[in-house]
Amino acid sequence: MRRANGLLGVALQTAALTAAGLLVAFLALPPLALVLRIPVGSVLSRFAEPVVLEALRLSLLTSLAATALVMLLGLPLAYALVSRSLRGRRLIETLIDLPMVLPPTVAGAGLLFAFGRAGLLGGALGALGISIPFTTVAVVLAQTFVAAPFFVSTVVAGLREVEPRYLELAATLRASPSTTFVRVMLPLSLPSILAGAGMAWARALGEFGATITFAGNLPGVTRTLPLAVYTALQSDLEAAVSLSVVLLVVSFVVLLGLRGSGIGALPRRVRAPRRAG
Amino acid sequence: MLHAELDKKFGEFHLEVAFGVERGATLALIGESGAGKTTVLRLLAGLDHPDRGRIVVDGETWFDGTTARALPAWQRAVGYVPQDYLLFPHLDILENVAFALRRQGRPDRWVRSVAQGALERLEIGELARRRTHELSGGQRQRVALARVLALEPKFLLLDEPLSALDLQSRRSLRGVLRSLISALDCTTIYVTHAPIEAIALGDRILVIENGRATQKGTSDDLLRHPKSPYVAEFVGVNLFRGTPGARDGSGLVDVAAGDRTLAVIDPGGNEELFAAVGPRDVTLHLEGPSGSARNVFRGRIEEIVPEPPHGERVRVVIGSNPTLVAEITRQAADAMGLAPGREVYATFKATAVTVYR
């Protein structure tokens, strides 16, 4: 029996290792394929082409704007979710997570029916002389929509990890609730805020489906890097490869940076030594 | 002057105490773990609020249960030091101490010099730029104290400030604490498990048992007249409780306690009384004594505990009913060959018993 168990163990171990190796290979293959397709010698000149530069500039502008918007609105929301006993908290949290699982094209359609000319708010916006679809603003809104949950859920988790007794102690040291938030809560949850912002930015940078549905594919206005890749694939394969590699490298560097600074993984608990009796 | 009436329920636990502390005085709060000591401090600091009651400090109402008025914690002039110090991990030592000083309009130089001054009063000025995790327990406790001292609090709440420290730092900090408390003009509540701290630092001692105040008095009152087994054990005396019985005309009276009858000096009256015997007044014998002592207990030794600081004296716990503790020199214990399990006779004179109600 022992021997049979040993054999079974070895077989299981081998199977598990094979499975793990297969997945790593599967995940590594597409990026590798892209990198191998780069035409040797022409990489740098390709990157400097106006099409690439324009898409890159637009992508950086919109994704950074979306990240800023997400942080500006997401931080108060995350704080409210952890500090108040909100009614219907579960409903709100589910709603916030929804864009993470929603197909981006569905998100784009939803945005169109909300902010489009014939949409829910279209009339009101039109009366003010504002038209959002197919503008750079629409790109930012689409990216904000899909990126927000990554920031909010990461920051909520981080804020929950802050030992509440530090906040109490700050109160006994004459710190008002707002002072306590700025001088204790924020610094102690800074790692999760940075991690959330990094993930939101990466998600905004890679946004495609919601953007093309809601904002269209207008060069210089709404054609971000992912859209430029899609467009180039239909005409100029080399350009598509160059654009893809740019996105690949940027995404990889962002993720690596998050891990390297120790904030990519789940935030470590900021804890007090022990609870007094 | 602090006046507090606190009534608070947490599930099964019910705290209900009322007490006052004179302006500038120190009240030592003693009691077993879970008795409600930390809860009292949290209610006074405003971290929790009573269900009912009142807190009035120097004429200012901090809490009034009838109007549900509660001053928020951050507006109360307290200095609160929790048991585990809770130094902010994201700030260095100087900034921890400066935390409460950094308010609008205060110049940075002033803040730093006050914070540095507080550190120096606790003899840790050189640690200003260290991080909290680099410090020893005793150093952290000094930082926690400096952090509240920099505020010049009118009202100091200390939760077992020395309990997490080793013997060496405890001894040196006890002296520091005593001189600080007397130098500051502040009202102090000092929670502790250690009799020596309560006696050394408390002008008055309040005993809390299971959410109720069971005794309040000077350390002398508690030493002479402990009113519960907890207090008796805390101050280290044997306490018996019983009702007077037969009187033989010699000025003594019998008091039934456990399965013994004690002979004590008759205080008159027939109400239940306390009888306390110091462990040093108890003599041990290997055979039945024939002397003049009226009270003889017989039982097996349960435990022999060396007394701090160096164990020259030992406390011998005798498993009679009621239990009796004798304190003798280690030499005597060794000479008699005392060891747990050995049967001994313990005696004390009727005149060695303090009787009170």
Main sheet of chain A, how many strands, which sense, barrel? none
- Structural class call of chain B reads alpha+beta
Rg of chain A: 23 Å
Beta-strand residue fraction of chain B: 35-45%
What order do the strands of the largest sheet of chain B run in, or round the barrel if closed? Answer: 7-8-9-3-10-11
Count the E strands of chain A: 0
Q: Classify the fold: give the CATH topology of the largest domain in chain B.
A: Rossmann fold
The tally of domains of chain B stands at: 2
Compute the number of helices of chain B: 9
**Could you say what the CATH architecture of chain A is?**
Orthogonal Bundle
* Helix content, binned percent of chain B: 10-25%
Kindly report how far apart the N and C termini of chain A lie.
Answer: 52 Å
- Looking at how many chains there are and whether they match, the oligomeric state comes to heterodimer
Outline the structure in words.
- The complex is a heterodimer of chains A (277) and B (357).
- Chain A is mainly alpha-helical.
- Chain A has a single domain, classed as MetI-like fold (Orthogonal Bundle).
- Chain A contains twelve helices and no strands.
- In chain A, helix 7 (136-161) packs across helix 9.
- The longest helix of chain A is centred in the first third of the chain and has 36 residues, at 2-37.
- Chain A is globular and about 65 Å long.
- Mean pLDDT of chain A is 86; it is low at 264-277.
- With 357 residues, chain B is an alpha+beta fold.
- Chain B contains nine helices and 22 strands.
- Chain B has helices spanning 37-45, 93-98, 108-121, 137-149, 167-183, 195-201, 219-224, 229-235, 330-336, and strands spanning 2-10, 13-21, 26-30, 52-57, 60-64, 69-70, 78-81, 155-159, 187-192, 204-209, 212-217, 238-242, 244-247, 252-257, 260-265, 273-277, 283-285, 295-306, 313-318, 324-329, 343-348, 353-356.
- In chain B, helix 3 packs across helix 4 (137-149).
- The mean pLDDT of chain B is 88.
- At the A-B interface, helix 8 and helix 9 of A face strand 7 of B.
